[in-house]
Design goal:
Blueprint: H1 5-47, E1 61-68, E2 81-90, E3 97-99, H2 116-127, E4 135-138, E5 144-151, E6 153-161, E7 167-168, E8 171-175, E9 177-179, E10 184-186, E11 188-193, E12 195-196, E13 200-206, E14 219-223, E15 231-236, E16 243-246, E17 252-260, E18 271-276, E19 282-284, E20 287-289, E21 296-302, H3 323-327, H4 362-390
Parallel strand pairs: 1-11, 13-21
Antiparallel strand pairs: 1-5, 2-3, 2-4, 2-6, 6-8, 7-12, 9-10, 13-16, 14-15, 14-17, 17-18, 18-19, 19-20
Length: 391
């Protein structure tokens, strides 16, 4: 069946309208996608860490992260705390520092940051005038201390609590920091703090001749007061080396005293005062000491031997000598002991031999006396008998 001509024209018009509708929809969709792309690109540029000076209303704060490194001595960083001091603001357009009131005399500028001497002089000047810290942060288990929301400008960082860690010097940081490689400002800084090793102290046991006492056990204790009422720690000496080691901390003063002497030696009553300044200098009894190449300061600590107990030499196998044998051991065969007024033997030997009735001439004297006595007795009896007869 043939289609009328008018209907043919209507069908062609519908096809044309459909084609243009599709093209218009694609055009509108393309425009919308382009708009969204431009909007996203603009938002990304604005949100990226670019030049903070482009947006004066942006939050002008940053973060400083301090990382400690394990020292050669193996000291722990547990308990270490840092403090931050806000010293100067900064004009991001000109780069000029606006010093706060306590630090206005500092001459450091952003162009002299490359000079180590200029920075060190500025640190010394600022550290001597710091007041209350603006922020503090403790080191975590990984050895990292984080300061957040720090205003743009120049900051001084110092250790407020060194604990048992090595010496960490003060340093400066400026926010934001210009990254020349990427040509943009950095608002997150990571600083690796270099630690200077501190020395240890060792007690070295010696005899009166200055020779080391080894092979014997001994114990020392550290006290927080001169009166030795607050013991901090006790350390057993190493018998192989004769040393007892202690580890002083920054800003600490303690007193060392022997509490157990080596066998055969008298316990010493000497007290040793040890002080370590905040700069790491060590003083022993108020005298500054310099450590050796192994970062050790040794202190000679003398012990006197126990006095010998008097003993009598004897032949092996003999029975123990009696008191009388000991006292008469210095006398000759012709000498004996004569009790003194107190019943004790005199100090020196007796040179006059004692007379005995039964030795030598004494024997004849006894016989003569006996004969005379017998004769007298007989004579008396004969006289008595004669008298009775006469009666």
């Amino acid at each position: 069946m043939a289609i009328p001509l008018c209907f043919r024209h209507v069908s062609s018009l519908q096809i044309v309208i459909k084609l243009w509708t599709r093209r218009l929809f694609l055009l509108i969709l393309t425009v919308l996608l382009g708009s969204f792309s431009l909007l996203y690109l603009s938002f990304s540029i604005a949100a990226a860490p670019g030049d903070p000076a482009d947006d004066p209303d942006a939050d002008q704060t940053g973060t400083v992260e301090i990382r400690l490194e394990p020292g050669k001595s193996g000291r722990s960083w547990n308990g270490v705390e840092f403090e931050a001091y806000y010293c100067a603001g900064i004009d991001l357009e000109s780069g000029q520092l606006d010093w706060l009131e306590p630090y206005k005399g500092c001459t450091l500028d952003t162009e002299s940051f490359s000079s180590t001497q200029a920075v060190q002089e500025a640190i010394t000047y600022l550290a001597g005038r710091k007041t209350e810290p603006a922020a503090t942060a403790a080191v975590n288990e990984a050895g990292v201390a984080v300061f957040e929301n720090l205003a743009y400008g120049l900051w001084l960082f110092s250790v407020s609590k060194p604990a048992e860690y090595d010496l960490v010097g003060s340093f400066l940081a400026i926010l934001p920091c210009w990254n020349e490689e990427e040509e943009r400002f950095e608002t997150h800084l990571s600083v690796r703090a270099k630690a200077n090793e501190l020395c240890d102290i060792a007690i070295r046991k010696t005899d009166p001749e200055g020779q080391p006492i080894v092979g014997k056990e001994f114990v020392f204790a550290s006290y927080l007061d001169r009166e030795l009422t607050r013991m901090a720690a006790s350390v057993s000496g190493d018998p192989a080396t004769g040393l007892a080691r202690f580890r002083p901390c920054l800003g600490q003063t303690f007193y060392l005293k022997e509490i157990s002497a080596p066998q055969g030696y008298v316990l010493s009553d000497r007290i040793v005062k040890v002080t370590m300044d905040k700069d790491g200098s060590l003083y022993v009894d108020n005298v500054k000491k310099k450590p050796d190449s192994s970062m050790l300061v040794a202190i000679d600590y003398e012990n006197k031997p126990v006095p010998d107990t008097p003993q009598t030499s004897k032949t092996p196998g003999d029975s123990p000598a009696s008191e009388k044998e000991i006292l008469t051991s210095h006398l000759t065969e012709k000498e004996t002991l004569v009790p003194g007024p107190t019943g004790k033997a005199p100090a020196g030997p007796q040179t006059k031999p004692a007379t005995s009735l039964f030795t030598g001439r004494g024997k004849w004297l006894v016989l003569a006396v006996g004969a005379l006595a017998a004769s007298g007795l007989l004579l008396g009896m004969s006289i008595l008998l004669k008298k009775r007869r006469l009666r």
